[in-house]
Please model this.
Amino acid sequence: MSGFGFLFESIVNAFKLIFSGDAQVYSAVSVSLQVSCTSAVLCTIVGVPAGFALAVGRFRGRQLVITLLNTLMALPTVVVGLFIYAFITRRSIIGPLDLLFTKKAMILGQFVLALPIVIALTNSAISSLDKSVRETAVTLGAGRLHTSFAMLWEGRFAVMAAVTAAFGRVIGEVGISMMLGGNIAAHTRNITTAIALETSKGEFAFGMALGIILLLIALGMNFLLRYLQGRGES
Amino acid sequence: MMPENAVSIAGLKVVYDGQSALDLESLEFEEGRIHILVGANGCGKTTLLRAVAGIERPVSGSVSVFGEDLYGLSRKEFLKAIRGISLCFQKPYLFNTSVKSNIEYGLRFRDLTAEEKRRRVRDAADALALGPFLERNAHGLSAGESQRVSVARLLAIRPKIALLDEPIANVDVSNKSRVESAVERLREGGSTVIVATHHMEQAYRLSANVVRLEDGRIAPPALENLIEGEIEEMDGLLYLVAGGVALSVASGKPGFARASIEPTAIIISSDKIHSSARNSLEGTVKKLSAHGGLVSLEVDAGVTFTAHITEESFNQLGINLGSKVYLTFKASAVTVF
Model:
């Protein structure tokens, strides 16, 4: 079979797997969405206020923190996996919690991976706001809390982009999922670890089906963001 | 009862990048009136408004609002104090939401019923002709429309102290009078209003309480011989009637008006002169002062006028304190605002 023929057949089989509702494919998709959505939500809850505080706060070492966060944005996933592994392995301090090779461990790893992205990009979003946003809110009678809400509201599209970037990073990572999840079928096997495993076994169509779904999820997220931004500008 | 000062400034200094932006020894703004700050760009008008609004911390001096030193208050008291002050910026920022939400934003922090909030938004929008824009996103408005929304926000809030920085800067001709009426409405509603403008005509249309700033300091008044009175039409001619004196004017509409006469446009003579000038008044010299080759005379002619004449003319006429003189000036020399 020619190279193109193989590719064409794989794509056709990939779509067959997607439309037939293959249990293994959708189990991996389900794990990916559960783990990555949870870690992205947790990152938003912690990272957005932290990024906001970093943008409006003036303290010693602020620039150092920003530089550190920018560095952490490019953190290799296997390094995060390695560190978290060291913390949750059965011989470590929190070993008795029995987190290793669970979805919780994957969520924790992805949380650590994406948090610097959300904090750094939220800081950048709020810092780039016109200073008159804050001053307008203050001179119209808003207290500290409402002024903060006004600033977040005005920077909401950039903050949403930060969360989208973080979600994109975690849903596509493989190192953390492999090291902390263990790639256990129907339990911790997600899209990326399934692609790695099945492709190595020669199940190219299976890997491609998951790859297509991964791309569609990323595309969907970005379409949603564009739609919301468009609505905000109309 | 003496009216209270809404804002009292003492020894106020604001510095930007090591350069003095404002240096005011003393300045007071009486409660319940419209006050105007005039001056060229960069003279310190905006800085003064920002300092009064609580968003420009001075390096020294005080800004007292109803007797309380704003920058000497605790954080909690400061926030409470500035809640009564609102500033309409020269380049207003409108939140990325509807015009309606922008107008009602400040009302969220005031203890008002939902019905009262709706009424205030509607009234403010009507006053600034913003009704057709209420549901539109504020970021799609022109600069002039944005400025009207910004004024409407103040009108809805009705702050104790309303500060407006160049409120008609970008407003089209047809809406300028709406903005000026809104300023008057703020005063009628009990606000002390301070407006910064570089439009001299607008300044005197709004109020006679004009403070001129120059290089961050208070400068002598921009206008002398400022007269407030009623314009009346008699025999097809217009007269400004003030203090028992009727001055012929070249333009204006019947009703209350302010006008000024350039001191150098007034001819001083010891006898009545017959000329094309329509205004000729007899008065008594009350005060004399000399500066820069000119003599300044204050003459009481029912209304006090200031006239400037050269030292040579002064010596020729032999004027002394208490001398009777005639003041002659054209109707067109009276600028009606």
